[in-house]
Amino acid sequence: MKLFDVYPINDITITRAKGTRVWDNEETEYMDLYGGHAVISIGHTHPHWVKRIEEQLEKIAFYSNSIKIPLQEELATKLGEVSGKKDFELFLCNSGAEANENALKLASFHTNRKKIVAFEKAFHGRTSLAVAATDNPSIVAPVNETTNIVFLPFNDNEALAGYFNTNGHEIAAVIIEGIQGVGGINVAEDAFLCTIRRLCDDYGAVYIADSVQCGYGRSGQFFSHDHAGVEADIYSMAKGMGNGFPIGGIIISPKFKAKHSMLGTTFGGNHLACAAALAVLEVIEKESLMENAEKVGNFLQEELKSIPELSGVRGRGLMIGFDVPASHKNLKKDLLFKYKIFTGEAKPNVIRLLPSLALTMDDAAAFINSLKIAIAQYQPS
Ligand SMILES: Cc1ncc(COP(=O)(O)O)c(C=O)c1O
To answer: Which domains does the chain have, with CATH numbers?
Structure first.
């Protein structure tokens, strides 16, 4: 049997990893500033994470949600402490799309309404409703098409207020990434998030903060929405949550009332996933990784801004994007194959940095050095 060929892949086979380094099957070392798409939060194969998973594996890996799983309560308590959202409640699932799917569904149950406001360039996942709320028609199958979703311009207070003015009482939810990831690292302005909060309050709609990529400390705050000083009603999470162990979840404001069977999953919240997620939070706290993300991220942004060939340096913490000129369109490939550095990309010509939150200042400086050398290759001699 062959694999269903849906991924454009690089011809590299990674066989081991440690911290912000990965090695291929020929023992070539790479610096990882991509983290497998913002997934590696505390560093590859962190010893505390490995130990907690191994110890859990010896006891029990999985049982369904038909029994008590105290690790889920432990995770909810820890998540409340580290995120500062102690009065929220946790529902666990397996991926980012599933988290958003549940968030949107819950908003619809809660309001008994159908309309969802999403934004241009948004990416919320590939399941039915999440993909319908994703601004990319090429990944929306005919069966996913719905008139219940409207896309408005990002960071446009007037357009949002205008839409609420005429349709406000039909809107179940507004869903927004605090920093658009797949869309090219576009930061939601604080004032825009405040407008969303106010309009949702005025019209009884639910504010969903898609924090799948920008959450879990990546922006320097636990949720990037925290920078705006407003609180969403539901936060969806996944990527950094398990440091590579598949787990997702939503945290839900106390204004929602749970009802048996309204949400559910077979695998979500299993023992092994909870152990991995607890290890991540313990390391984020113990190693002050949010503070590190802010410090190293600020350094990277300043350095990137000083490179004349680059423009539009943006982001927060260790979620950074910049534009490269069309003449440098192979820069990302060169960084990977010549300089052995993984970065991410977004079209057209955007490079994204999504490293582990434990990236050191030395590694950040080494990256800037390699980037300058790589860019210099394009200069006329
Ligand atoms: C903001 C955002 N939401 C949702 C998702 C979907 O997550 P998953 O691929 O785990 O389903 C992604 C994935 O890139 C994302 O970036």
So the answer is: 14-45+288-376 (3.90.1150.10), 47-286 (3.40.640.10)
